[in-house]
Design a protein that fits this description.
By secondary structure, the chain is an all-alpha fold. 69% of the residues lie in helices and 0% in strands.
């Protein structure tokens, strides 16, 4: 089962099941012999667990929530150093694609320096395999002991609304006064929101798939903008060992141009994603879950013919089966994931 609640189970039970599944997955991913993949996939599991905690936060004992959230955050941070170095190389590579020959030469010198730093990284900056494995297992035991003090959709309602409201507020703050820190904080809220959308997707897969696609697109753009900010600091700091004044200026201009384009894109996407008032969106999602729970299982899982109602398309089909179009998407790129040949099975898997 993917990272989502089931229509045929109480949310209270779903919380425990999903937490257990993600701990098992993190344990499995951490054993991957490719350490870069192990770090990346394990960190994603930890982010899913924190999104799950956040959606249930208002119905969890406050002290228990805070303690477990901090512990999961600390495990993820212990893995971030090695991941951040790899991201730096990927960011430099992304700039090379649009660079002139002269600018590409500067970027190549910068990349060589960053690569050497990865190779020469001190042993203490590499995650301890056994220590991390033990921390994940212990987190699983603590999560199993958590008891949401609610049932049904109430387990998720207030937390979902809270996360969405925070994302909306961060967007408004960022539009009024940009800062790297504010952009990074907004991204964390966007990531939590789209992971929580994944949790709730079975209520109406096709509808949620469109929202998830937009949220992931926004998260990726904000993430790339943050990576560029980190690179800009590196260029003006350790990067001077590989670049002279002209090189620093050339790379900085490339970074700033890319950042400006991304800022315009993110605010546009954000206005669409966060268009609904928080209470209104939460009420909608609650109704979708109530209706989905009333449908006979056989009907809810039966694929509809996309051609049977071209105006409504598959968006109105509760099953959201593969091969159906998403009508009325705010961006044609977002409908691609639900188009024939691109759709995932029934509910899009969170990653």
């Amino acid at each position: 089962m993917g990272f989502r609640f089931k229509k045929q189970e109480d949310f209270h039970n779903g919380f425990a099941r999903i937490a257990s599944e993600q701990i098992a997955r993190a344990t499995r991913e951490w054993k991957n012999s490719d350490r870069a993949v192990a770090v990346h996939e394990t960190r994603k599991c930890l982010k899913r667990l924190r999104a799950l905690l956040a959606i249930a936060r208002p119905v969890l004992e406050p002290q228990a929530f805070r303690a477990e959230n901090v512990k999961l955050r600390d495990i993820a941070r212990s893995l971030s150093v090695s991941r951040d170095r790899q991201v730096m190389l990927e960011t430099i590579d992304s700039l090379m694609r649009d660079a002139t020959c002269e600018d590409a030469a500067w970027l190549k010198r910068l990349r060589e320096l960053a690569s050497r730093e990865i190779t020469d990284a001190p042993a203490g900056s590499v995650p301890n395999v056994k220590k991390t494995a033990k921390a994940i297992v212990e987190a699983g035991k603590r999560l199993a002991a958590l008891e949401p003090q609610a049932s049904g959709f109430d387990v998720a309602a207030a937390g979902f609304e809270r996360t969405y409201r925070q994302g909306r507020e961060r967007m408004v703050e960022l539009a009024a006064a940009y800062s790297v820190e504010a952009s990074h904080d907004w991204r964390k809220r966007v990531q939590a929101h789209w992971r929580q959308l994944s949790l709730l997707a079975p209520a109406w897969p096709a509808y949620f798939q469109t929202r998830i696609a937009l949220a992931r697109q926004l998260s990726d753009a904000l993430g790339h903008e943050h990576d560029l900010a980190v690179l800009a600091d590196y260029v003006r700091g350790p990067g001077v060992a590989a670049l002279d004044e002209d090189g620093v200026g050339a790379v900085s201009r490339l970074v700033e141009a890319r950042q400006e384009a991304l800022r315009q894109q993110t605010l546009c996407d954000g206005r669409i994603l966060f268009a609904d008032p928080p209470k209104s969106l939460t009420k909608q999602v609650r109704r979708y879950w109530a209706i989905a729970g009333e449908w006979p299982k056989a009907v809810a899982s039966t694929p509809r013919r996309a051609g049977s109602n071209r105006k409504a398309g598959a968006v109105l089909a509760l099953s959201g089966a593969p091969g159906q179009r998403v009508a009325g998407s705010p961006d044609k790129r977002l409908a691609k994931s639900a188009a024939p040949g691109h759709a995932r099975k029934n509910v899009p898997e969170e990653s």
